[in-house]
Amino acid sequence: MRPKRSVSITDRATNSTQMTTGKPYRRRDLLGIRELAASDIIGILDTAENFREISNREVKKVPALRGKTVINLFFENSTRTRTSFEIAAKRLSADAVNISISSSSVSKGETLLDTALNLDAMAPDCIVVRHSSAGVPHRLAEVSKAAIVNAGDGANEHPTQALLDAMTIREHKGQIDGLSVAIVGDIVHSRVARSNIHLLTKLGANVRVAGPRTLVPKDFSFLIRDQEFASGKKPLEVCDHVEDAIRDADVVMILRIQRERQDAAFFPSLSEYSIHYGLTNERLALAKKDAIVLHPGPMNRGIEIASDVADSSRSLILDQVKYGVAVRMAVLYLATGGSPSER
Amino acid sequence: MASDLNLVEKSRVMDASAMNRALRRLATEIVEKNNGAENLYLVGIRRRGVPLAERLRDKIEALENIKPLYGILDITLYRDDLSTVGANPVVNRTELDDDVDGKKIILVDDVLYTGRTIRAALDQLMDFGRPKKVQLAVLIDRGVEHRELPIQADFIGKYIPTKQNEIIKVMLKEFDETEAVGIYHRSSD
Amino acid sequence: MKLLIANGHVIDPVAAQNSGKDILIENGKVAAWLDRKEARPDDAEVFDASGLVVAPGFIDMHVHLREPGQEHKETIASGCAAAVAGGWTSVCPMPNTNPVNDNAAITRYMIEQAEKTGLANVFPIGAITKSSDGSELAEMGEMKAAGAVAVSDDGRPVPSAGIMRRAMQYAADFALPVIDHCEDKSLSSGGVMHEGKMSLLLGLKGLPALAEEIDVVRDILLARDTGAHVHIAHISTAGAVEAVRQAKKEGLTITCEAAPHHFTLTDSAVEGYDTNTKMAPPLRSEEDRMAILAGLSDGTIDAIATDHAPHHADEKSLEYDRAPFGITGLETAVGLAFTELVHKGVIDLVRLVELCSTNPARILSLAGRGTLTPGSVADITILDPEEVWSFKVAESRSKSKNSPFDGREFRGRAVTTIVNGRVVFAAETV
């Protein structure tokens, strides 16, 4: 029998049974932020804080995951995310193996299940998976004995991106509770937006989303309809205009616009998009004076974000990349058996 | 760490003033052996080594008028039992703000027992650079017969020969209600 | 050879029958109804139906049997075996075979294969357009002559209102109902589940209710214009049910069917990304499910049809958005209808028989079926409304195992299936 698995990264309930059944290491999945409680999220962030220092050492490596195997299973190209996970695994002394599978293996007749079982037979401790289809990590978690970490699945979630964004926000704003965060762009197709909305609202921020109506459906607030702050304020608001979302925001998060959305007639042209929805200095001036700007990268300069905004000191894009390594180290450590830190 | 619930105190081997005297002597010995406080770097091992290192630093400063460097090691990620049953250890921060290269490091911990913690601390220290010298200061040494690695202390507050089923508890005001060292055994023993 | 179905409770809405009767079968036909007092013929084999309900054979007017062309998923033989095990005496396969059933030869082939198997009756549904590509009309008259009972382009609904109008005009000439899978693909393209809160939550592309409703309304307008009989397949949204309700009030020849999964499950079942929750139309919202229940109860919905859509495990183990649409349904439909409808008080047994037998026979003009009146074909479904049982997909007679109902417990099932006077299925007694 397979050990009982959890869908979230923390499942203390099964902890004791795991210990008594003699499993050498607990394996825990990180499938999405939606499944996590606020305390779980804070636990991961606090653990990540303690991993930051390792990247400043002369020898940027600790032996924590020595002898463990981490497979980076990427069905979709992403040099940044894959590199970040690979560096994180290596700084923990895990053996990191990168596998890139194009969708062509599907045409060869290999199913997702085949791929999962084949990898599992090689006994990895953790599989980091990215796929263009939502739900793939969830299906892998059902069949694999390894811990599954979601590195982005379709339009569903990208939990480590939201965690590194949260770490960046905490670093600059002290806390997330009570902040106003604007998320602008292609909300409906964005896993970054979904994970961030879940994370930020769970930690008490008010999130306002805006963009072309074709990419920001009016009923998007359904996403967390069941949740409401004690203040009666809505945790998630869909704004009619980008300006309404940005006004008095503490954090402005800009999403990357995919050029193929233009071909699918979600908006007429990139230049029209940049004029009406792009983050310019004029629009940013509506936010709080000390507002910070985040972008998951890679940026389309002059389209969703003006170059001078991207290069300004308020834009923390490189901080996000830096914290990405610490967050992924913490996630790999926790997924393969560690416990979250407390601040 | 054993759970405190089932522990019964057998005897108390040090009280607050005895601890303070032992630390004062340790500070003197450290200064003597190193010909002063020049280039000294006190590094406490989490958790109870940290306040002990702080106190030694203050006492050395009082003796020599030089404030030694000071840092904290969290050895969790270097433990050799990470993959054993029920490990799930929590990571805390390591804070070595100054370069260790060329320094005379004094590792500080509360109890020296098997030596495995010190092994982990040495490994971690080496990942930060190349100290000139590393010495070990402990408040309690439980005896060389318990050692599982060829490690011994350079400075010992008190030598307490113990049996394996006994537990030495160093209580410090930073974490505990009292300031003392006691020998305990499990109530089920 | 005579068979007497004795001591059962006979329900036949055509004859307004709802009480104890014995039924005598001779030469594949219903010969007579006998009162309990009457003397039983000595030469008849007796089937004791004590405590059971005897109903005219159930007719599933919407299945996919995959033959010819995709025999790895299902064959006419395996599909018919699953059908009779689920209580269905007749099934109507959709034309999306390979090649498409758009001509008399394929229609005849399907019927012959079914006759060879000798289990359920197969009444094929022919294509509306050649290859179901939405452009040229298929030879409806020839297919009808070969045995087709309706026309449909099912999963590839005719996009052009102009072609659909002509198809309806032409089909009306042959008194063939036009069955439409209502889905405006320009609205649903890329969608894999119901568009709503769950699709937003799961990051899956939605199939809006609007895509179904816009086509239902179009078909109603076309039916008014052409006078054709339009049958809406697997109706799934509250808006579509309401549109049909109004059209019926107006007196148009509009009928519709609902699938068991649509009156049982909602889109919340998609959580976990089990590809056995993926079908078209998709599992909808709870509001939509309630509207289906209301429609089943008030007569707006005429039939229960399974939309049995077998797919091989390899195809269903793909990613959610790449896996094919559809689930099997023949063996679970009656259990679901009892458990979700009859025992929950949504409908009574008489209405269940109307939905599963009387109405499908009437919609498809199946002479001598959908009733047990003397002279009619001896297709009989015998039901135990109280039997508690659970469905195990591993034991399914279908070649495919893509069911979301594996392990589900039901109360009520079809225990014996008689086709043309012959017992073709008898459940093992517990």
Question: Can you offer a commentary on this structure?
Answer:
- Chain A has a five-stranded parallel sheet.
- In chain A, α6 links the parallel β3 and β4.
- Residues 1-25 of chain A have low confidence and may be disordered.
- Helix content of chain A is 37%, strand content 13%.
- Chain A has two domains: 12-157 and 323-335, Rossmann fold (3-Layer(aba) Sandwich); 159-320, 3-Layer(aba) Sandwich (Rossmann fold).
- Chain A has helices spanning 15-20, 38-52, 79-91, 104-107, 112-120, 136-143, 159-173, 191-202, 242-246, 260-263, 270-277, 281-284, 307-310, 317-335, and strands spanning 69-74, 95-100, 126-131, 147-153, 180-184, 206-210, 236-238, 251-254, 292-294.
- Chain A has 343 residues and is of the alpha/beta class.
- Chain B has a single domain (16-80, 93-161), classed as 3-Layer(aba) Sandwich (Rossmann fold).
- Chain B has helices at 16-33, 49-64, 116-127; strands at residues 7-14, 40-45, 69-73, 104-112, 133-141, 155-159, 166-171, 180-186.
- In chain B, strands 3-2-4-5-6 form a five-stranded parallel sheet.
- In chain B, β2, α2 and β3 (69-73) form a beta-alpha-beta unit.
- In chain B, α1 (16-33) crosses α2.
- Chain C has helices spanning 76-85, 104-117, 140-146, 161-173, 185-188, 197-202, 209-226, 238-250, 260-264, 286-298, 313-316, 333-342, 349-363, and strands spanning 2-12, 17-26, 29-34, 44-48, 53-56, 58-63, 88-93, 121-122, 125-126, 150-152, 178-180, 193-194, 206-207, 230-232, 254-258, 303-304, 380-390, 409-419, 422-426.
- In chain C, α2 runs parallel beside α3 and α7 packs parallel to α8 (238-250).
- The radius of gyration of chain C is 20 Å and the shape is globular.
- Chains in contact: A-B, A-C.
- The A-B interface holds A 15, 19, 22, 24-26, 47, 49-51, 53-54, 57-59, 61-64, 67, 92, 330, 333, 337-342 and B 74, 76-78, 82-95, 123-124, 126-129.
E-strand count of chain B: 8
State the end-to-end distance of chain A.
37 Å
Strand content of chain A: 5-15%
Q: Mean pLDDT of chain B, nearest integer?
A: 90
Specify the oligomeric state.
heterotrimer
Query: Radius of gyration of chain B over alpha carbons?
Result: 16 Å
Structure characteristics:
heterotrimer, B: 189 residues, alpha/beta, five-stranded parallel β-sheet, three-stranded antiparallel β-sheet, 24% helix, globular, C: 430 residues, 2 domains, six-stranded parallel β-sheet, 13 helices, 19 strands, 23% strand
